[in-house]
Amino acid sequence: MGDTQTDPQIGGEIDERYSRQILFREIGREGQQKLLASRVLIVGCGALGASHAEMLARAGVGHLRIVDRDFVEFTNLQRQTLFKEADAAERLPKAVAAMQRLAEINSGIDVEPIVADVNNSNVEQLIAGCDVVIDGTDNFQVRYLLNDACVKHNIRWIYGAAVSSYGTTMTIVPGETPCLRCIFDEMPDAGSSPTCDTAGVIMPIIATVSATQVTEALKLLVGDVDSLHCSLMQFDIWANDRQRIKLGEPNPDCKCCGQHVFEFLDADSQEFAAVLCGRNAVQIAPANGSSLDLAQLASNLSSLADVKQNEYLLRFSIDGRELTVFADGRAIVKGTDDIAAARSLYARYVGT
Ligand SMILES: [Zn+2]
Predict the structure, then answer these.
(1) DSSP 8-state secondary structure symbol assigned to residue 69
(2) pLDDT in tens, 5-47
(3) 132 C-alpha to center of ligand 1: Å?
(4) Which of 17, 57, 239, 305 has an alpha carbon 20 to 30 Å from 338's alpha carbon atom?
(5) How much is the pLDDT for 216?
(6) Are strands 331-334 and 281-284 parallel, antiparallel or unpaired?
(7) Ligand 1 geometric centre to CA of 32 (Å)
(8) Distant-in-sequence, close-in-space partners of 135: CB < 8 Å, separation ≥ 6
(9) pTM of the predicted structure, to 2 decimals
């Protein structure tokens, strides 16, 4: 490995492009080759996810799969580094806007954008074949689901969260370190924790948490597990506070990694509709995924509302609410946190 004379992967442009990273002894040429051959799933492409994606793409991780359910809005631009004003004006799905920008940053890697809601019907398929899964979501439902799926399939994953000026992260190596449920047995109740939409967030905490997560991902990908921080890291950059709580062994009584009972993965079905916390919006998601003919829907709605459409979604306002409908049949209804009202609008204008 690493022979510049015989290996077409390494040498010339590759050596030059990644020279500063190859000089970094803990990565080196061999580590760079491993990165180029690696596959990472980024779950959620908001502030944390966009930052993970940019750093991993620049580092030369060969294949990035990015899944996100949402579209770019102007309120994202303050901290979501991959996106620009035109993406928000067009309301591009975040996964697609990320892919476009990453292709400009590094054309030598593959980026696979997936516009979807992560749930128990698709999570195992999404993590399949990935060396590391990195958490860029904004909700615990998905994190507990990821924890179940990654422990079940023995895939390393890196939890991360940031809100206000506070953030936290831990790295889960199934079977070797505690999992998310070893530390937080019960999922916090919906609405019990502040979110970026209620408490705000400043970009430096995103940079701090995402940098810690990506560094852990690089260590895992190059095989330097001895350098993992093996702790629950907590930061409050405004309060100048940083804590590192050392983690011990996995808890043998843990439902997930101890008993292999995967409650979140094996739940009967996901909610058909969910309030998007703090956003005055509801997501409606068809139970088993489906596909929708956006052009047909736009034509059906054209006499009722002003419909704006791109390749991935359409949106229209009606009855004081704004509906954004994706090609997979999902819709985000803005202007209400009433699930029944949102369902009724969906049924009336999109179909059931
Ligand atoms: Zn556990």
Answers:
(1) -
(2) 445 455 688 889 999 999 999 999 999 999 999 999 999 999 9
(3) 18
(4) 305
(5) 98
(6) antiparallel
(7) 32
(8) 43, 44, 48, 143, 146, 157, 158, 159, 160, 161, 213
(9) 0.85
Structure tokens that stand for 72 in this block:
């770019």
Question: Could you give the dihedral angle defined by the CA atoms of residues 123, 128, 132 and 138, in that order, rounded to the nearest 10 degrees?
Answer: -10
Nearest to 159 by CA among 191, 133, 182: 133
How many angstroms is it from 231 CA to the middle of ligand 1?
14
- Residue 67: closest CA among 102, 103, 118, 114: 114
Kind and range of the H or E element at 275? strand 273-276
Task: Please report the pLDDT score of residue 1 as a whole number.
Answer: 43
Q: Are strands 39-43 and 132-135 parallel, antiparallel or unpaired?
A: parallel
Using CA atoms, how far residue 279 sits from 90, 283, 332, in Å, is 20, 11, 11
Q: Could you give the residue numbers annotated as active site?
A: 196
Q: Which amino acid is it at 109?
A: I
Distance 154 CA to ligand 1 centre (A): 12
Distance 22 CA to ligand 1 centre (A): 35
Residue type, 77: L
- Cβ 207 vs Cβ 215: under 8 Å: no
Amino acid code (one letter) for 300: N
